[in-house]
Amino acid sequence: MTSTTPTVRLGQPARYEDLPRLMSLMTGAEKHGPAATSTLDAVWVLYDRVLRVSPETAEHPDRDRFLLSKGHGPMAYYAVLAAKGYFPVHWLPGFGSYHSPLGHHPDRVLVPGVEISSGSLGHGLPLAVGTALGLRAQGRTDPAVWVLVGDAELDEGSNHEALAFAGAYGLERLHTVVVDNSSASYARPGGIAARFEAAGWSTATVDGHDHQALLGATRHPHPGRPHAVIARVEAKD
Fold first, then answer.
1. What is the pLDDT averaged over residues 219-227?
2. Angle at 198 (CA atoms; ends 221, 132), nearest 5 degrees
3. What element of type H or E holds 36?
4. Of 30, 173, 190, 228, whose CB has the highest number of CB atoms within 10 Å?
């Protein structure tokens, strides 16, 4: 192990404190660093406390699904996956290089644990709706579907249609985390939560850096309705 490799070893529990150093291994152009750091706390809480999935169960049909729609800033996602053992830490320094599986956008074919290839904004929520609908059609009521989107993505028409459909069909196993850094182009009366509520969703708005608040919001009861966690973060990107 070289001096530049973080002390995250097989058999040791992953720690939140390891993540900044893991992220620091990913260098080069087009990092979208602020986009990554704005999602770090939400992604960590989901993988550490919420999602029923692990490297050993990543292909199990009854696993929970996490879809990163905000795929243009995957550094936090890669750091969490490495910390949780989905792939080796030594992959991280190759981020964005020609031969590395860790591209500037995550690729589900190349990166263990990644559910969707993403980066083109506006795709994640529609894909999550389709995933939740497909699981319902198969009679699989246990898996939860989580998708993380950025607030600016909600300007995309595809997300508007997905949001409306999910509420109308009562996809209660569907959950969205909206990382809100006030970067959307168009203001909405009542804010993001009001938009989801108008479409029949349950919502909770919390500090996007407060782990206990995020955890509590993920556990908010929402029978018969999809649920959106609005994670407010400082405007950095």
1. 97
2. 55
3. helix 33-37
4. 228
